Amino acid sequence: MDAKRSLEVTHGATMIEPTLAASNSLSDGEKTPAIVDTDKPYPTEEEFATLPKVPGHIPWTSWTVAVVEFAERFSYYGTTAVFVNFIQRPLPIGSSTGAGKIVQKSGALGMGQRASTGLVMFNSFWSYVTPLAGAYVADQYLGRYLTIQYSIGFALVGHCILIISAIPPIIVKPNAAIGVFAIGLVIMGLGTGGFKSNISPLIAEQYKDERPYVRTNKRGKKEIVDPAVTTARIYIYFYLLINVGSLTGSLAMVYAEHYVGFWLSYLLPTIVFCMCPAILFACKKYYTHSPPTGSVMGKAAKLIGFAFKGKWSINPRTTLKNFKHPDFWERVKPSNIAPADRPTWMTFDDAWVDEVRRGLLACKVFLWYPLYWLAYNQMTGNLVSQANTMNLGGVPNDVINNLNPIFIIIVIPIMDFLIYPGLRKAGINFTPIKKISFGFFLSSLAMVSATVTQYYIYKLSPCGSNINALQSPERDCSAPFTVWIQVFPYGLIGLSEVMASITKLEYAYTKAPKNMRSTVQALALLTSAVSSALSQALVGLSEDPLLVWNYGSVAVVALFGGIGFWLTFRRADRDEDRLNNLKESNWGAATDSDVESSVNPGVDTVNVMAGEKSAL
Q: Most buried residue, 196, 316, 362, 467, by CB count within 10 Å?
């Protein structure tokens, strides 16, 4: 075990200088000398408690991955930004491209708001289920780089099919267009899923320092360069580039839709998407690559099943007590099982068991996210339709949702250069758990503002609470107030994303076993798919006169999620540093003999997760 890069927690000490300790499981008489990196000294316990933590330097290779993500998000959001109008509204009179040219409202299939909401939610669901397949292929067979390249190929095919669905000979035949559109949606989702589960681990693993160290800054003061803080900063700017792509793609394609037609709104993102494979290929030799590790997912599942074996009881209290027992995970570590009794699949070391346990904690955190995404998902469907029922002032209704990425782009530098450093300087530990909880509450507040707006739309509209049924080119049912009132829901959701969504990426990366980072990232993304499935239950509320109930219900659910999340994980904050600095496993596709040289029966490791009540 390369303990040089890890935090070893043993009886009698909580934080000690990591070294390459001698293992009594090495071959006869063989000892590994202690090694201390004097250039990057590991912090003492006192230094951990007193010195400020700062991010390290972000490598240029991470920035190239961020540019790839920008291009992919430009293409994805540029394409999906026009889905609502493409599905919901009919072709404008005399148009064969769907362009309304602002005089009329752009549209194509004329299937109504319920159908558009349902299909948009399906696209979101599909795009967040398929990352599981992409993660499986990457972690076990191809590795992240090749999986991303193949996924880009699938997505490009899907984009091309969407272009076909919008060309004039097809778009004028709604039954044919919807069929082609659906095929393109499914294939594009396959590529999107494989891309998403692997691109975020790829960007973070370009940063090579995996352990905190003490340095003296230009002012002569000591500080701790913390990989966890660096990872958080990498993902902040990763998310910034996501939203720059979202903003530019959405704005450009919405105007292309309104002035030229939907075919151009699908063509331009496809062209930009072609940047992705070119950049990745050009920088391939400079990237840090994590090779596939074979049957890692299967072994993780077997390990979890092995830990649960014999712990179930008819009495739920007994079962819960068994799961919380301090030895729940210790007893399934290879060093605590005699070689004769050790399962043949147990070819990993003790440290990997701790990493899997930590990864399960992250998965517990993700279980609450579907309630958060319910509020977020309102942006891609119902809030776009809500904009169409207010005074647009000549602005296309599907431009307004760009308030969200604009707000994020403004807020992220403020958080990175002012708020977060200020909190650290003041000694306030704004942990991931606190950030996520705050994000839930902000999303609930966003839905409260949408509820109030919808109430006044119904109250002041000439058509009352049946706007979409009565509105026509001859009759304007818009409420007599500006659409820019939507700055409140879009802005609040944007701020909540900075808290909850970015932190989810960071948490998935820092808590996952090194050889399962794509898998844990995919499980984090799966929460969006679950939320999209739950949103289908609310589709019945996505029409007049029920939209007030729709937004109000989502506000209550998000509030409940925030309270439940905080009550569940409020004790986990104290263990954040120890969880981030567990002894790192060297196991990849190890053999049984490797285990004998990596476990150390002489070290009785303290349960570093003692602050978390549950054994998982």
A: 196
* Per-residue pLDDT tens digits for 355-368: 898 888 888 899 99
Q: In angstroms, rounded to a whole number, what is the distance separating the alpha carbons of residues 581 and 188?
A: 38
Q: Facing residues of 475 across strands?
A: 472
Strands lying side by side in the sheet with 222-225: 53-54, 222-225, 213-216
- Residue in the structure block whose two tokens are 């960007």: 203
Q: Tell me the residue type at 272.
A: V
Domain borders along the chain are 56-292+357-576
* Residues composing the chain: 616
Q: Higher model confidence: residue 424 or residue 443?
A: 443
CATH of 56-292+357-576, picked from 1.20.1250.20, 3.40.630.30, 3.40.50.300, 3.40.50.1010, is 1.20.1250.20
Give the pLDDT of residue 317. 84
Token digits of residue 576: 């954040």
C-alpha span between 545 and 504 (Å, rounded): 35
Mean pLDDT of the chain: 84
Q: How many Å apart are CA 477 and CA 470, to the nearest integer? A: 7
Distance CA 402, CA 243 (A): 9
Q: What pLDDT band is residue 441 in, cutting at 50, 70 and 90?
A: very high
DSSP code string of 413-478: HHIIIIIHHHHHHTT----HHHHHHHHHHHHHHHHHHHHHHHHHHHHHSTTTT-HHHH-BTTB---
Please name the residue that has the structure tokens 């969407």.
162
CB 86 within 8 Å of CB 108: yes
Q: Are strands 222-225 and 213-216 parallel, antiparallel or unpaired?
A: antiparallel
479-482 and 213-216 beta bridge pairing: unpaired
